[in-house]
């Protein structure tokens, strides 16, 4: 359990809070690129870390993220006109374009500068002294990322592989969740729940396909293992980005199976997949009581050995749950207001929860705790080791920054390669070390990296 004080530190993200100041030192997803599809298009409301902002793509194609309230009299710039200035209405080469407030016509560019103030005398220099709060942005992997921290501490963008991702491999989506970002993220860092929350009765009918042996098993065999051994043993291994941990289970045939999930400070996870994964989940605070779950492809994993893009959890025959939406803003059909459409008869005869949507099972669990759960009421066990470690890292980093100005961990300026952040899943060979799986020292990863370099050189 946590003390009430530490729970406050962990969950509060507004300006001036310890965790809020920590999170502002990292680049955060602010919107999907598809929400700003064209130059001069409609602005988008963004609430991020408790701040109300507006994102827009100006007539020259540049993206701005500025405060929602006009610095003049506070009208919402979301209602503004995305246009050129009165001096350059068609977006001249000087870049004179931006959002024009509908109240008095004041106009702001992507950097927050007031570039037009037509309600003031033409001779006035007042506009040169007015600035809207604006944040740097970086577009990568189908996501518009923003840096909300002090400009003097801004570090380079943390590239998990999205900067070099080919357009045909870009896939990004987001889901709104009315609960605190930490309890949402804790679900991704909890390997034991897959043996309970997501279980369905037909798993017992999956055939033994011969992959319950050392090596890369099928997805069907994974489901059989999760149902067979429902009390995994956890081992946590710290690394420069945070940690990876293994959920260790014994397969029906007596072999050692590992699900390896990674946590990169402060809010990035990569969940276990066969053979390894280059897909990220990020838990972004809207404010203290709401968050957005971003999911994106960070790097293309090839089709080697028949495992496609990372052993998709849902690629299993007769999978009973609703199709999963991965791209764009994901609609919420299953919500707390309709009790996640729970079917009690299905709960008794078909699946463990009675909820027919896989992702909504997770959402039910984390949202039903309330907006911010009081962690001083918890009773944690050995299967919670990864969650405990994440909390200690975040609280320690937030306190160190607040009290001593200690730079946060896992920043891009430290010289590390974030493209090496991967998860994995496998039945271990005798004596095999799970810590190698999915890393650049993994023979399978080395093989793919070599093949990728050979392909790139052949195309050069």
Automatic annotation (TrEMBL):
Query: Which Enzyme Commission number(s) are listed?
Result: 1.14.12.7
User: Which InterPro entries would you find in this protein's record?
Assistant: Cholesterol_7-desaturase, LigXa_C, Rieske_2Fe-2S, Rieske_2Fe-2S_sf
Please name the Pfam families in this protein's record.
Answer: LigXa_C, Rieske
> Organism's domain of life?
Bacteria
User: Any idea which UniProt keywords this protein has?
Assistant: 2Fe-2S, Iron, Iron-sulfur, Metal-binding, Oxidoreductase
- What class does this enzyme belong to in the EC scheme? oxidoreductase
Q: Which CDD domains match?
A: Rieske_RO_Alpha_PhDO_like
Which GO terms of the molecular function aspect are on file?
A: 2 iron, 2 sulfur cluster binding; metal ion binding; monooxygenase activity; phthalate 4,5-dioxygenase activity
Q: Does the keyword Oxidoreductase apply?
A: yes
Gene3D superfamilies registered for this protein in UniProt: Naphthalene 1,2-dioxygenase Alpha Subunit, Chain A, domain 1, Rieske [2Fe-2S] iron-sulphur domain
Residue intervals of the Rieske domain: 27-146
Record protein name field: Phthalate 4,5-dioxygenase
């Amino acid at each position: 359990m946590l003390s009430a004080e530490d729970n406050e530190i962990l969950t509060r993200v507004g300006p001036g809070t310890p965790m809020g100041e920590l999170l502002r030192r990292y680049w955060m997803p602010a919107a999907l690129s598809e929400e700003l599809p064209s130059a001069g298009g409609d602005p988008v409301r963004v609430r991020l870390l408790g701040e109300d902002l507006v994102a827009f793509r100006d007539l020259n194609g540049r993206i701005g993220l500025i405060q929602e309230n006009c610095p003049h009299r506070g009208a919402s710039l979301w209602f503004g006109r995305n246009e050129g200035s009165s001096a350059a209405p068609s977006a001249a080469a000087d870049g004179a374009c931006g959002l024009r407030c509908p109240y008095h016509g004041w106009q702001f560019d992507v950097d927050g500068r007031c570039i037009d103030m037509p309600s003031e005398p033409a001779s006035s220099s007042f506009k040169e002294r007015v600035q809207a709060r604006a944040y740097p942005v970086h577009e990568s992997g189908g996501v518009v990322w923003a840096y909300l921290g002090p400009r003097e501490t801004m570090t380079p963008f943390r590239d998990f592989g999205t900067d070099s991702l080919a357009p045909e491999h870009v896939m990004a989506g987001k889901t709104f969740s009315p609960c605190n970002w930490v309890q949402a993220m804790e679900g991704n860092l909890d390997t034991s729940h897959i043996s309970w929350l997501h279980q369905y009765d037909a798993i017992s009918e999956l055939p033994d396909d011969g992959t319950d042996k050392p090596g890369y098993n099928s997805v069907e065999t994974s489901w059989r293992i999760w149902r067979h051994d429902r009390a995994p043993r956890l081992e946590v291994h710290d690394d420069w980005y945070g940690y990876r941990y293994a959920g260790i289970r014994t397969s029906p045939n007596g072999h050692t199976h590992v699900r390896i999930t990674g946590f990169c400070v402060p809010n990035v996870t990569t969940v276990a997949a066969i053979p390894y994964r280059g897909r990220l989940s990020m838990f972004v605070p809207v404010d203290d009581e709401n968050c957005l779950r971003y999911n994106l492809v960070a790097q293309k994993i090839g089709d080697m050995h028949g495992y496609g893009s990372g052993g998709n959890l849902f690629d299993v025959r007769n999978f009973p749950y609703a199709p999963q939406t991965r791209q764009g803003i994901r609609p919420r059909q299953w919500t707390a207001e309709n009790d996640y459409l729970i079917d009690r008869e299905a709960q008794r005869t078909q699946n463990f929860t009675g909820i027919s949507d896989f992702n909504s099972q997770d959402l039910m669990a984390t949202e039903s705790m309330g907006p911010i759960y009081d962690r001083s009421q918890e009773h944690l066990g050995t299967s919670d080791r990864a969650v405990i470690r994440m909390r200690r890292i975040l609280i320690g980093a937030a306190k160190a920054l607040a009290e001593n100005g200690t730079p946060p961990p896992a920043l891009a300026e430290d010289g590390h390669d974030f493209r090496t952040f991967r998860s994995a899943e496998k039945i271990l060979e005798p004596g095999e070390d799970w810590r190698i799986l999915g890393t650049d020292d993994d023979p399978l990863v080395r093989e793919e990296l070599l093949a990728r370099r050979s392909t790139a050189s052949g195309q050069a």
